[in-house]
Amino acid sequence: QVQLVESGGGLVQPGGSLRLSCVVSERIVSINTMGWYRQAPGKQRDLVATITFGGSTNYADSVKGRFTISRDNAKNVVYLQMNSLKPEDTAVYYCYIIRRGLTYWGQGTRVTVSS
To answer: For the chain, what is the mean pLDDT?
Structure first.
């Protein structure tokens, strides 16, 4: 089974920063598409950011200019750097990969933005 393990969530004040990490149990050089979703309390799960093998990125409009996705193929890790955090960013964040047409998910890490 493909396993994704996330870390880095926590409580932060508005305007603060967090970096989320996701370690994947296989070589991500073989995985073209990776990224992050988030699910706020009582809301649907929404796509936040994606990154390809070549480093091309896409972001939800709500996080453009504030979040940066990156990947370290040697360490099999995908990151989400979150800056200028807002209360609206409060959610459980899930990393994912798409492999052979199937999507695999991490367990999620909680991010709470509050004063």
So the answer is: 94
More confident residue, 23 or 31: 23
User: For residues 92 and 41, what is the distance between their CA atoms, to the nearest angstrom?
Assistant: 8
At residue 31, the pLDDT reads: 76
3-state secondary structure 15-79: CCCEEEEEEECCCHHHCCEEEEEEECCCCCEEEEEEECCCCCEEECCCCCCCEEEEEECCCCEEE
Beta bridge partners of 59: 49
Residue 87's closest CA among 8, 10, 14, 19?
A: 14
The β-bridge relationship of strands 10-12 and 109-113 is parallel
List all residues 6 or more positions away from 44 whose beta carbon is below 8 Å from its beta carbon.
Answer: none
CA distances from 23 to 16, 42, 89 (A): 24, 27, 22
